[in-house]
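User: For my dataset I need records formatted as: sequence, then structure tokens, nothing else. Please produce one.
Assistant:
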Amino acid sequence: MSTLAVVMQTVVKPWMTQIAAGIPYHYQQDGAPAHTSNLVQNWCLENLDMFWSKEFWPPQP
């Protein structure tokens, strides 16, 4: 598992669950390679509600 996926699993997800407390939220990432790796994209798909993949938003020209 990548370092980013570990941080998201152990820090970000529990923190957002506590802070949002059942309220829908958006977690936004940029197009950095660590954010767009298949491992992280798959983790987000499995663990975040209403996840939009990197293909949803095209890069800026």
